Amino acid sequence: MPDKRPIGLGTAFRIDSWSRCITAFHIGEDLFQLDDHEAEPILKKNINLAALDISKLGYGCLSVPKNAWRPLSGLYSLCGKECSPIAPPRILNRTELMVLRIQPAQQSSTGSPFLPVDFHRWTPSKGEEVMALGYAGIDQDQYDLGENRPIRAHLYGSVGRIIDIERVDFDRVRLWPFIRVEAKWPGGMSGGPVFNKLGHVIGVVSTGNEDSSTAVLFSGWDVPQQIFGSIDPVNPGFFYCYGVFEETGELVLCGQDENEIKEFARSRGLVDQCIISINPITHDYVRR
Predict the structure, then answer these.
(1) What is the DSSP letter of 67?
(2) Pick from 129, 184, 186: which is nearest to 154 by CA?
(3) In which region does residue 188 sit, left (phi positive, over 0), alpha (psi from -120 to 50) or beta (all else)?
(4) Beta-bridge partner residues of 90
(5) Domains annotated on the chain, with CATH
(6) DSSP 3-state assignment of 236?
(7) Which residue, 247, 80, 84, 276, is CA-closest to 173?
């Protein structure tokens, strides 16, 4: 870790048992710039990104294990480029969704806990209640303690009714579909999950103020399917990963690291490998 104190930016959450997490694009938008060829986004100099992965909740001032600070092994989104005759080209937020690859601090035989997402089965309606979770007011210096203050992270939940629904609109700067909710979702909650009454995540916290807040939706467009990758959109609760099989056809190992699976198969002389869709809870799977 760098010598300088880490700065809390927002909320992210796991969407599969391996490494994929979701957050809001605008949280990290100012941390990136276009490369020298103005073609690809790159992290700005002197910036290091890490996630604080705490498996348990607690009260008071808690010690943080060293392995709780997790490096980002990957980051993916779809974005645009804004060109101006009076300013350098800059990255343009076009989806408000960002995928982070974060390996869990603690490996488990049952996989890391994750939140179930709903791409298509749920559609919003005015008056319906949704609930958002996130770290409201994360890292605020409420007591003027300066750089020596601990990171404050209080998990906050807020329920509100949908008061407006906006579909995809390519003529709009914020083209993504979103709902406006009669609820206060303070800063720090950005990137947090938004649930329907079935307990499925249907969107991500985007903006918030005193009277209303917004969430970018998963339904109503195909961008989540393009960038979430591991989630099987046809079989709820199933995820795409690589699998290796015994000669008898029994699944021996599966995971999302293709090189790891190939090395495991090579070391044991196994040749039957393919992409599968698997439910990590029931262990049911389908070959693709």
Answers:
(1) G
(2) 186
(3) left
(4) 82
(5) 12-102 (no CATH), 128-225 (2.40.10.10), 239-287 (no CATH)
(6) coil
(7) 80
Q: In the numeric block, which tokens belong to residue 42?
A: 């790159």
Whole-number pLDDT of residue 1: 45
Contact 30, 253 (CB under 8 A): no
**Average confidence (pLDDT) over 12-29:** 91
- Cβ atoms 68, 105 nearer than 8 A: yes
Q: Is the pLDDT of residue 9 over 70?
A: yes
Q: Is the pLDDT reported for residue 2 higher than 70? A: no
> pLDDT per residue over 155-182, tens digit each?
899 999 999 999 999 888 889 999 999 9
DSSP result, 118-166: -SSS----TT-EEEEEEETTTT--TT--GGGSPPP--EEEEEEEEEEEE
Contact indicator for 33, 90 with CB cutoff of 8 Å? yes
> 54-61 — which CB contacts under 8 Å span 24+ positions?
55/104, 55/105, 55/106, 57/155, 61/150
Rounded to whole angstroms, the Cα distance separating 210 from 227 reads 31
Residue at token pair 């294990």: 65
